[in-house]
Design a protein that fits this description.
single chain; 2 domains; two-stranded antiparallel sheet; 5 helices
Length: 155
Amino acid sequence: MSKRKLTKKELRERQVIEDKKFDRTLFFSFGSFFVLIIFYLVFHVFWHDTKYAYRQYALYGKQVPTELVCMNGDKLLKHKSIKLSYKGKNYFFCNKSCYDHLINHFFEDAFIPDPFSGDTICKANALIGLKTRGEPEIIYFQNRKTFNQYYKSRK
């Protein structure tokens, strides 16, 4: 086979085609990299908000861990709460001022009626659940039986 020499026009056409392929590859590579960086930054910045929103739905009907609530405001928290003892019982708060409020208003804030049975219970001994799916408001239950009955009645 004899190799024929390419003309200048054919060389330019091949070069243009190769340049277009390279440009497409470069555009796709940098575009993908840019999109991945944006997703990473958004996820990294909003990680706590994402976990918080997920917990508001995922923990509905399940026992909420005490370290994720503020017992003074009766709310689910974005971060872990502070565990403090008062009168031999452990309570969980979002900050020191909530703890001070509990101490100053102990009988009003430390005890709450069970939503299903109506019995008065201490928040430190209660099971904790979410009142509504997708909302941060929590409720306290006397025992597992009233906890399960409450969520069965809500379905």
